[in-house]
Design a protein that fits this description.
The protein is mostly helical and about 550 residues long. It contains 23 helices and 15 strands. Strand 9, helix 9 and strand 10 form a beta-alpha-beta unit. Helix 1 runs antiparallel to helix 5 and helix 11 crosses helix 13. The longest helix is centred in the last third of the chain and has 25 residues. The radius of gyration is 33 Å and the shape is elongated.
Length: about 550
């Protein structure tokens, strides 16, 4: 028995399985040649980041388009940073954004045959692999304390060399196996490091699905692969998991490019074929002329909960992110009059290499387009579901009379060219509150934005005549013609063109009269179609409101 096997047996005395046993337990998947196995592998350290949703969306799309597998793996080996319950919250948020897994980690039990899908439950697997590395002198125990490592870093900084545990600076790699065994038996604490054979002064070329060939420094760091708590580090765990879960394409952010040499070296050391890698561009934000990555600490847009709580339809954020993923997507939506992402022929090679600036205006554009396509009942139902959690004010209005609420939302909706003024459910309360008398009274307590060039007496005369003569039985077109007649009796021209050519003969034009009516009924110049408002409010309420305005102007 070699001394390295003795060392491995001392550290992992209860491990009897081999890499061959793991290969049999997790065999290659039976999938079509072009099928991709992708994954989303978050850490349970907080909310779902918008950039993480972007990654998951792309990975999910590729798996679906190739009849492959999309799975969820929870990378929870960093116990110090883990936030209790955040793993389950991540799963729920993925579901909200309609990203459903084929297999992977679930709160109650795993779905699939390649689990466990929670890294903290896979320690036995990692130990089998690390034991193999120790047996072949590809890894070694390191006894350096935190203080020693800090001193090493400071020394390297003074020497102006690359910092890290490598080469001549990797003190414990030069310990003999006999010395290591003696230290372990004496009870000295240790971690396990991978024994690199690289040199950072050499360059290697690695392939990226999006970026093509990447030339980068070779890895020579003796990275920690097993911590003192007997859990692996990210670098090692993800290599083992992607191999035995049979991942074919790793999709992650470009911040991981610098780690790629480490990961490829580990695959090579274990004589495994590495999956393909695709490093996505970061989503950036422009602040004071400078770009920075969306930050959990300072950017509200960094958390998908921001969009959920503000009432954006989930389809809108997905569509916006897909427009970042492929520049051709937006034109495709126009050509096909569709926002169905599953129908879009996505091509990961068409992704931009530059970080995209988060554009809230573009998101609002997509959101308005998507909400405009909803039937009134669907919008009413979805917005109520949102209001239950996030808007007691809107929920109170909805619960007064759901049918009335639905009819309000249906104004100019189910038409060839529907209204597009709602970007999120949080917009609705502000836009519809004037339909409710008690809230209308609050609105008109403020100064109303009437045209100051039109005398109060003219406004009063017009509203008084409107109360007397308006016919609620007319259709929209006939009603507007009737409005012209009512307005003309008070001195308004029947069109803006006539008024422009003869201003001295008129007090304004019919558009001004319509604006007076709109302000009187809603308190605002911006409101839905007047005829629809009249139909919903009905004569009794309309007359009551106009008389209130007449009284207010007469005081």
């Amino acid at each position: 028995m070699s001394i390295y096997v003795q060392l491995a047996n001392l550290i992992f005395e209860n491990i009897n399985e081999t890499l061959s046993d793991l290969e049999k337990l997790y065999p290659p998947r039976s999938l079509d040649k072009l099928a991709e196995v992708t994954r989303f592998a978050p850490s349970p350290t907080g909310f779902l980041h918008t950039g993480s949703l972007f990654t998951a969306l792309v990975a999910h799309k590729i798996a679906k388009d190739t009849n492959g597998v999309f799975y969820l793996r929870l990378e929870d080996t960093d116990t110090k940073r883990e936030i209790e319950g955040s793993g389950e919250e991540l799963i729920q948020q993925l579901k909200i954004f309609k990203i459903n897994i084929d297999e992977g980690y679930l709160e109650d039990e795993d779905l699939g045959k390649y689990g466990p899908y929670r890294q903290s439950q896979r320690a036995h697997i990692y130990h089998i692999v690390i034991k193999y590395l120790l047996e072949n002198n590809l890894a070694y125990p390191c006894f350096c304390s935190t203080e020693e490592l800090d001193t090493l870093r400071k020394t390297q900084e003074k020497q102006k060399v690359v910092t890290g545990y490598y080469g001549k600076y990797a003190k414990c790699r030069y310990l003999s196996a006999e010395e290591a065994i003696k230290k372990i038996k004496s009870g000295q604490p240790y971690v396990i490091r991978y024994r690199s054979h690289g040199n950072h002064e050499r360059k290697i070329t690695l392939s990226d699905v999006i970026r093509g060939d990447i030339t980068i420094a070779e890895n020579d760091l003796d990275i920690v692969i097993l911590k003192a708590d007997l859990l692996p580090t990210y670098h090692f765990a993800h290599v083992v998991d992607d191999h035995f879960m049979r991942t074919t394409l790793v999709i992650r952010g470009e911040e991981w490019i610098s780690s790629l040499p480490i990961h490829i070296e580990l695959f090579n050391a274990l004589k495994w074929s590495a999956p393909k890698y695709a490093h996505l561009p970061l989503i950036m934000k422009l602040v004071d002329g400078h770009k920075h990555k969306l930050s959990k600490r300072r950017d509200q847009e960094a958390a998908v909960t921001y969009f959920i709580e503000d009432g954006y339809p989930v389809e809108a954020l997905n569509v916006y992110l897909m427009s970042i993923a492929n520049s051709s997507f937006e034109q495709w939506t126009v050509d096909h009059n569709s926002y169905e992402i599953e129908d879009f022929p996505f091509d990961i090679k068409k992704m931009s290499l530059d970080g995209a600036l988060f554009d809230i205006d573009k998101l609002n554009y997509f959101a308005k387009e998507i909400i405009a396509r909803l039937k009134a009942n669907e919008l009413a139902t979805r917005s109520k579901r949102w209001a239950v959690n996030y808007s007691p004010e809107l929920l109170e209005l909805i619960n007064r009379d759901f049918i009335y609420y639905e009819n309000i939302l249906n104004i100019e909706r189910e038409k060839e060219k529907p209204r597009k003024d709602i970007a999120k459910f949080n917009d609705i309360y502000r836009q519809i509150r004037f339909f409710y008398h008690d809230l209308y009274l609050e609105l008109i307590s403020e100064t109303l934005p009437f045209n100051e060039t039109i005398k109060k007496e003219t406004i009063i005369s017009f509203l008084t005549l409107f109360i007397k003569k308006n016919d609620y039985s007319l259709n929209n077109s006939d009603w507007f013609n009737a409005l012209k007649e009512i307005a003309s009796q008070v001195g308004f021209a029947s069109s803006a063109k006539i008024y422009k050519n003869n201003k001295e003969e008129y007090v304004g034009h019919v558009g001004d009269a319509a604006e007076i009516l709109r302000i009187s009924l809603t308190s605002s110049k911006n409101a839905p179609n007047l005829w629809d408002i009249l139909q919903l409010l009905k004569k009794e309420e309309v007359d009551k409101r106009l008389n209130l305005i007449i009284k207010k102007l007469s005081e």
